[in-house]
Every structure is written in structure tokens, then in C-alpha cells.
Amino acid sequence: MNSAEEYFNQVQQLIDHTPDAVIERYEEQLLSETRGVLRIRLRFPDDALLEISEAIVIVAGEPHSIAYRYHYQGPSAELVFRYDDAPHHPEIPTHPDHKHSGNQVLSGPHPSIDQVLLEVAAIRERARQSKV
Description:
The chain is 24% helix and 42% strand. The chain has 132 residues and is of the alpha+beta class. It has one domain (4-131).
């Protein structure tokens, strides 16, 4: 991968293969050939919402995050999880990377968008199974 545009195309393909997701917002901002900002809002049929915000730079063919936030909330607008790198939890071993899960702040590395989409799919599948 040599450009931010290639990375954005890869993310678009992942989004296109996300079941039941409706794109409310998809915004790419190319700052240079190797830098860019991505903002996405995906809405699900039950009103759950996934917001993706990421600033990246391509270094040696690999995307590297400058800043990110992946926020998933359930149908009643309750926080299910949010990954981000805001530097407000220095006590976390993976600082600044961390995950908000409900009312907890957990240590954790920066996930890829693909990993976030898989986590959302797993949560949604568990919710479907519990309704059956």
C-alpha cells in the first residue's frame, strides 16, 4: 500500500461487506499522497451506530494512525465500546491506546478497522441469538 487513497479504498471494501450497515456518512480527506482523514457513520436496522474517525499516514507501505476513535453504541444510544487514543488515561499500560467498555476503561492496543467491524458483528450476532 503506497497511498492514503489505497487505504481508503480498502476500508470502503470492508464497509461494503458489513451486513445490514447503512452508510450515513463517508468522508475521506486526502491531505497528501500518504496522509488522510476518514470519518464514517454506519447505522444498523435496530438504530445501533458505529462511528469511525481516523487520521493516518502511510509509512513504508503500512498505514499508521495519527489519531483514531471507533465508537459503537447500541439501539438505545448506550455506549457498547469506544476505542481511542486520547491521552486522558495515563494509568493504562497501553496509554494512550485504550478501550471504553460500558463504564470501564480497559488497556488495549489500537485495533484495525477490520477488527472493530468483526467485534461489532460478533456483538450483533450475540444479540440476535439472545432474541431467538
